[in-house]
Amino acid sequence: MHELSIVTSIVETVTETLTALPDSQKGARVLEVRLRVGALASVIPESLEFCWGIASEGTPLQGSRLVINMLPVVMHCAACEQDAELEGVQSFRCPRCGEPCSDMRQGRELEIDSIEIEDGEEKK
Amino acid sequence: MTTRIVELRRGILKKNDELAATLRASYTAAGVLVLNLVSSPGTGKTAFLERTLKELKARGLRVAALVGDLETDNDARRLAASGAPVRQINTHGICHLDAEMIGKNLDGWEGVRLDGLDYLFIENVGNLVCPSSYDLGEKIRVVLLSVTEGEDKPLKYPTLFHSADAAVITKMDIAEACGFDRELALKNINEIRPGIRIFETSAKTGAGMEEWLEYLAEARGVL
Question: Which ipTM was obtained for this model?
Answer without folding.
Answer: 0.84
